[in-house]
Design brief:
UDP-n-acetylglucosamine1-carboxyvinyl-transferase, Chain, 2 domains, alpha+beta, binds shikimate-3-phosphate, four-stranded mixed β-sheet
Length: about 425
């Protein structure tokens, strides 16, 4: 589906954005694993979340959805049932990698499939450590879906140092670990999002720049209430839209402000953005607060290498901010972008190539120089939600607007993106 945008002149108002995708997935998973009734408030309702919810329904969980409130009757330790058919995780890398850890510890066989994009994403990164733990996993080719996980009589703890900075890999290992009596240990040299640790209350020790995280059966989740803060990654599109629209002010309510996710605010502030935090509090173990964003003049800066994992999902929209900021925009050390819902180095560069910007593509990033000439273009989402929304924002800021082909990809993380835009444009 093609969506056309013309340039907006002013933004004003406030938005309640949907629940954070990472926290929503984990809240549903932990509720389904726990014994008894849990409730997840402000759960993201999107295609990715439905992949997780449907999987647990297929494994015998009773799950009722009332808007963004999800009532889940969890099955308790080893209480999940063998799914009658393949588990289709659609476009969701988080579901696939986290569930691989959970499924490796079950007493039944399960097969995971996904859409064309997910079937091209590397699963070897979870297969390797889980196999070291004694899991039995058969994948396609060099670690791709479809993938079958067999029951293992020999699942045991490991100590695993993450070779890639990935919260999904970390979580897969720790979630297999909560099924074992002895401690499983993850060593993380570069911090990644820590929602699994926060929500399960895992033991985390800091040693120099590394973190040592352990999980064991004592950390198995209990039924309870989860309040999911609004998604900072979805907020990033609106933050940048408001910053770059003259005479604008926008309030975003109850946004997730976990430090492993707020790198985007750090970088934008370094660029000169005026973003105020209010009403900051801890809700369900996660820092949450309102954000007030005022139009600002931005200047490109060197992005600190250690922040890359923190801002990895926001790089496509950050590059849009970079185009309208003074100076060249450059990102390096972000090879992981090549393994997301699309190869985001290539898909960002391909789209910017259409608007007269000088683009240098590197194996681990890209550089954008010069200004957009203002002419409209037909952008491609490459069936990637964050590319669809990033180039929608670019089109809303561009003199002659723009068109996004494959706009429906937004439904993966924010099906109401267009309505939210309409709500704040005056
Ligand atoms: C996620 C971790 C990140 C991120 C993804 C969500 C998570 O992926 O890009 O959108 O919820 O754990 P990686 O672990 O592959 O970096």
């Amino acid at each position: 589906m093609r969506q056309e945008f013309s340039r907006i002149s002013k933004i004003n108002g406030e938005l309640n954005l949907p629940g954070d995708k990472s926290v929503s997935h984990r809240s549903v998973m932990f509720s389904a694993l726990a014994k008894g009734k849990s409730t997840v408030y402000n759960c993201l309702q999107s295609e990715d979340l439905h992949a997780t919810i449907n999987a647990f329904r297929l494994m015998g969980c009773n799950i009722k959805e009332e808007g963004s409130t999800i009532f889940i009757e969890g099955r308790g330790f080893k209480g999940l049932q063998k799914p009658e058919k393949e588990l289709d995780f659609m476009n969701s890398g988080t579901t696939t990698r986290l569930m691989s850890g959970i499924l490796s510890a079950q007493d039944f066989e399960s097969t995971i499939i996904g859409d064309a994009s997910l079937s091209k994403r590397p699963m070897k990164r979870v297969i390797d450590p889980l196999t070291q733990m004694g899991a039995i996993i058969k994948s396609t080719g060099e670690g791709f879906l479809p993938m079958t996980i067999y029951p293992s009589a020999n699942l045991h703890p490991v100590e695993y140092r993450l070779p890639v900075a990935s919260a999904q890999v970390k979580s897969a290992v720790l979630l297999a670990g909560i099924h074992l009596d002895e401690k499983t240990t993850i060593i993380e040299d570069i911090p990644t999002r820590n929602h699994t640790e926060n929500l399960l209350g895992l033991d985390v020790k800091v040693e120099g720049t590394s973190r040592i995280i352990t999980s064991l059966k004592a950390n198995y989740p209990q039924a309870g209430i989860y309040n999911v803060p609004s998604d900072i990654s979805s907020a990033a599109f609106f933050i940048i839209l408001a910053l770059l629209t003259p005479n604008s002010e926008l309030k975003l309510n109850s946004i997730l402000l976990n430090e492993t996710r707020t790198g985007i605010l750090q970088v934008l502030r370094m660029m000169g953005a005026e973003i105020i935090e209010e009403n900051v509090q801890i809700r369900s173990g996660e820092k949450t607060g309102d954000l007030i964003i005022k139009s600002s003049k931005l200047k490109n800066v060197e992005i600190p290498a250690e922040l890359i994992p923190n801002i990895i999902d926001e790089i496509p929209i950050l590059s849009v901010a970079g185009i309208f900021a003074e100076g060249d925009f450059e990102v390096r050390g972000a090879e992981e972008l090549r393994h997301k819902e699309s190869d985001r180095i290539k898909t960002v560069c391909d789209n910017f190539n259409k608007v007269g910007i000088a683009v240098d593509e590197y194996s681990d990033g890209f550089k954008l120089s010069g200004n957009a000439k203002g002419k409209s273009a037909l952008f491609e989402s490459f069936t990637d939600h964050r590319i669809a929304m990033a180039f929608s924002v670019f089109s809303l800021l561009n003199k002659d607007g723009g068109i996004v082909e494959g706009f429906e990809a937004c439904a993966v993380s924010n099906p109401d993106f267009l309505e939210q835009v309409k709500q704040i444009v005056i």
